[in-house]
């Protein structure tokens, strides 16, 4: 099953998240299929490729609760 989830990047006390599509069984820092956005919680910067997210969701991918909340927040 595919999941759309956050993958933490950045450095200590300066997080930055990639929003990726990956197999549920894979490690959070492991391999992924595609990067569909990024989120910087310090700058409050959110970029989503909504077309690609809709494509993966229509093919059975499930967003994590956090990604779903961010998508609703963006609109």
Indicate the topology.
Elements: E1 2-11, E2 14-23, E3 34-40, E4 45-48, H1 50-58, E5 62-63, H2 65-74
Parallel strand pairs: 1-5
Antiparallel strand pairs: 1-2, 2-3, 3-4
Overall description:
The protein is of the alpha+beta class and 75 residues long. It has one domain: 2-Layer Sandwich (S16 Ribosomal Protein, Chain: A). The protein contains two helices and five strands. The chain has a five-stranded mixed sheet with strand order 4-3-2-1-5. A hairpin with a 4-residue loop joins strand 3 (34-40) and strand 4. The protein is globular, with a radius of gyration of 12 Å. The N and C termini lie far apart (25 Å). The model has no long low-confidence stretch (mean pLDDT 95).
Rg estimate, integer Å: 12 Å
**How far apart, in Å, are the first and last alpha carbons?**
25 Å
Instruction: Estimate the strand proportion.
Output: 35-45%
Label the structural class: alpha+beta
Please tell me what the overall shape is.
globular
Low-confidence stretches: none
Characterize the main sheet. 5 strands, mixed
Q: What is the arithmetic mean of pLDDT?
A: 95
| Annotated CATH architecture | 2-Layer Sandwich
Instruction: Name the CATH superfamily assignment.
Output: Ribosomal protein S16
Total count of helical runs of at least 4 residues: 2
């Amino acid at each position: 099953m595919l999941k759309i989830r956050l993958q933490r990047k950045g450095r200590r006390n300066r997080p930055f998240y990639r929003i990726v599509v990956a197999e549920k069984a894979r490690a959070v820092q492991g391999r992924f299929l595609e990067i569909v956005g990024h989120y910087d919680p310090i700058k409050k910067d959110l970029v989503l490729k909504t077309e690609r997210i809709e494509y993966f969701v229509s093919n059975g991918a499930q967003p994590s609760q956090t990604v779903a909340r961010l998508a609703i927040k963006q609109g």
